[in-house]
Amino acid sequence: MRVRVGLLSFGLLAASAAVPAAPPRPLRVLAVLSAEETFFVSEARAGFDWEMLEGYARLHQRTLELVPVGGWDELIPALVAGRGDVIAGGFTATVDRRKQIAFTAETFPTRSVVITRGRAHPPRSIADLKSEKIGTLRGSFMLDDLRAVGLAGASVDDSIETGHIPAALKSGRITAGIDGIEAALVAKAKDPELQIGPFVGAPASLAYGVRKADRELLLSLDEYIANARRTPTWNRLAVKYFGPSAPEILKQARGETP
After folding, report:
1. At residue 87, what are phi and psi to the nearest 5 degrees?
2. Which residues pair with 141 in a beta bridge?
3. Torsion of CA 240, 255, 127, 141, to 10 degrees
4. Of 45, 89, 165, 169, which shows the fewest CB atoms inside 10 Å?
């Protein structure tokens, strides 16, 4: 009887050893998508952030799964609820957001900037914005910057969809838009009549957001980002998605040029 039990146990161990290990589950990427802004994450599974995360996923033998959300104010609730593992797509690491989730090292610099179109006398200061019909995106860091300078309120239309500020300017729905400098420069390349005006707020950083409890994921993403910044990978992607204006984006976002 002892021999039979021993053989049975050995057979069960051998059978379990023969079962292949389950592949790592996909890394679920939460992002706000727009057909007008495809330079960070797009429906076509492309963009600066998407390609960066593809490299990370390959390194860790994982795949990426895109989880679109409807607006910027929905990203953190979706992450906290477990609908995704990482927030990407040009997401700014603000003070208020850091209270709720953890952020990786900077992936790209950013800064809120005023955009107008075809104006003979566009606003040149924050004070000039008080007489404008201002438009920006709900739940965005641009709206936070407007609040910080006392401009958010009834005069601000924050119902504009991602990527639609240039169209709102063209239609006359707004007279001044507030967007990230990277989005503004890409939009200006498509429409030369757009004018980039003064900054609103201080230089900031785009980064990936993760749950505070996901310490291991945060550390591994930080290591990957640091390595990518030391190789041609980061510069190659910056030029690919932002073209020759990439150096200008970096300098303006960091406040190195007026």
Report:
1. -95, 130
2. none
3. 60
4. 45
Q: Which of 238, 232, 231, 240 is nearest to 253 (CA)?
A: 238
pTM of the model: 0.85
| pLDDT tens digits, one per residue of 120-166 | 999 999 999 999 999 999 999 999 999 999 987 767 999 999 999 99
In 3D, which of 119, 176, 121, 129 has the Cα closest to residue 151? 129
By residue range, what is the domain housing residue 247?
27-109+204-253
Helix, coil or strand: residue 206: strand
Helix intervals (H) in 45-122? 48-59, 75-80, 95-98
| Helical (H) or strand (E) element with 253 | helix 246-253
Does some domain include residue 20?
A: no
* Tens-digit pLDDT profile for residues 168-223: 999 999 999 999 999 999 999 999 999 999 999 999 999 999 999 999 999 999 99
Q: How many residues does the chain have?
A: 258
- Helix H or strand E segment including 87: strand 86-87
Which amino acid is residue 72, in one-letter code? W
Query: Of the candidates 167, 202, 164, 161, which has an alpha carbon nearest to the alpha carbon of residue 181?
Result: 202
The pLDDT of residue 249: 86
Q: Assign residue 145 the CATH number of its domain.
A: 3.40.190.10
Give, in order, the Cα–Cα distances in Å from 213 to each of 56, 82, 85, 90, 217. 20, 12, 11, 22, 9
